[in-house]
From TrEMBL:
PROSITE patterns: N6_MTASE. This is 16S rRNA (Guanine(966)-N(2))-methyltransferase RsmD. One of its GO terms (molecular function) is methyltransferase activity. Gene3D superfamilies: Vaccinia Virus protein VP39.
């Protein structure tokens, strides 16, 4: 059994590192992502990522939007599983800097890195996406408003994934919902 081994970008030297996340499957399986030490970043657990991407299936040729990107793990997992383009949007300077540096490990995938408020981006964006991955800070974002805005950016047959806390009360009616401990994954399809 062999694993793809990818080096750590030298640009991370001297950056305080909080955690290592590994890509779970696909072309870049085993690639280790680094993220800066930031109290506001809560990466999606490996268990939840695996289950989510198993549900999503083949992403070959997909255009993906990863909003509230944080560590970028969801978008990079999509890239490893066949997405041809991934746009990362986060308002945090350190998060976007870290995602950009991790992007150096992913060749052959069109990656865009945008530091902007997610709601402002969704209002100004003219592009449509096959898959939108949203992992906002738990209990700090209006999830109904997020779903309403994000669905407008989906192309025909597109899917919106929102990760939230099971404690959050919002209208996920019409979504396929799975719960993993405190985490709820809601998948909407157009």
């Amino acid at each position: 059994m062999s694993a793809n081994i990818h080096p750590t970008p030298s640009s991370f030297i001297g950056m305080p590192i909080k955690a290592n996340l590994s890509i779970l499957a696909g072309t870049y399986k085993g690639t280790r992502l680094k993220m800066p030490d930031s109290a506001g970043t809560r990466p999606t657990s490996a268990r939840v990522r695996k289950s989510l991407f198993d549900m999503l299936g083949d992403l070959s040729g997909s255009s993906v939007l990863d909003i509230f990107s944080g560590s970028g793990a969801l978008g990079f997992e999509a890239a490893s599983r066949g997405a041809v383009s991934v746009t990362f949007v986060d308002s945090g300077r350190r998060a976007v800097e870290s995602i950009r540096k991790n992007g150096l490990l992913f060749h052959g995938v069109n990656l865009d890195f945008i530091r902007q408020d997610v709601f402002r981006f969704l209002k100004q964006c003219n592009s449509s996406f096959d898959l939108i991955l949203a992992d906002p800070p738990y209990e700090k974002v209006n999830l109904n408003g997020l779903a309403d805005q994000a669905i407008k950016r989906l192309g025909s047959g597109g899917r919106l994934v929102i990760e939230s806390s099971v404690r959050e009360k919002w209208n996920s009616e019409g979504a396929r919902v799975k719960k993993y401990g405190d985490t709820q994954i809601s998948i909407f399809s157009t």
